[in-house]
Amino acid sequence: MIVAIDGPSGTGKSSTSKAVAAKLGLSYLDTGAQYRAITWWMISNGVDVHDADAVANAAGKPVIVSGTDPARPTITVDGVDAAGPIRTEEVTSKVSAVSAVPEVRSLITELQRSIAKGAERGIVVEGRDIGTTVLPDADLKIFLTASPEARAARRSGELKGADVHATKQALIKRDAADSSRKTSPLAKADDAVEVDTTDLTLDQVIECVVTLVEEKR
Ligand code: C5P
Fold it and tell me: Which residues does the annotation say bind ATP (predicted)?
């Protein structure tokens, strides 16, 4: 059972995907964390993230390893725990530039496919291009959406009181960059089920996705 969950930031993708995987005994992969990890490595190693050639040349250097237990997802870069550093504002503001570079996408896509293939119990994979590009044969594809206001309110809550207006502007900017890049942009697959989470609680979204998975099993 392969479940692809895509959508823009702040729609509840991570919380939903982790909870659904835990409930159904599936593995879990956060693909955004992998793009954040490679971005963190580029920043730490002095690579100019706006120089696409430099990013492309360095893309194969870091070794990124994702742990797929939904109760304790981990990510390391060259053996170093990157879970904290990949969530900084600097990484968040630079990740779209790095993830738009085709060489980065092809390396990370291969890594994602091999993790999904190796997940014997099945897996929930969350991201932006999972249903369209990474795993087009997924058993179930979900596309989560929510109004920009709801997404900004959730994100600023997670960031412990960050300014909602500034958060909304940053989200809109990142989604625009992710949706307009040439290589595998953020997009809903034609055969994905769209779930608008604006007026739903997290528990309601989880229940809705669990039901959709069970219908496919
Ligand atoms: O999901 P998260 O906000 O952690 O993703 C960070 C960034 O990683 C996104 O804004 C996007 O640029 C990139 N990403 C991507 N493709 C994916 C997952 C994330 O390009 N499948």
Answer: 7-15
Average pLDDT of the residues of the chain:
96
Mean pLDDT of 153-166: 83
DSSP states of 77-100 as a string?
A: ETTEE-TTGGGSHHHHHHHHHHHT
State in Å: Cα 199 to ligand 1 middle: 24
| CATH number of domain containing 201 | 3.40.50.300
Ligand 1 surroundings by CB, under 6 angstroms: 9, 31-32, 35-36, 95-96, 99, 127-130, 174, 178
Q: How many domains does the chain have?
A: 1
Rounded CA Rg of the chain:
16
**Protein residue closest via CA to atom 13 of ligand 1:** 32
Does the predicted model carry a pTM greater than 0.90?
yes
Domain extent at residue 94: 2-216
Residues 124-148: tens digit of each pLDDT:
999 999 999 999 999 999 999 999 9
Q: What percent of the chain has pLDDT over 70?
A: 100
pLDDT in tens, 187-216: 999 999 999 999 999 999 999 999 999 999
**CA-CA distance, 36 to 63, in Å (whole number)?**
13
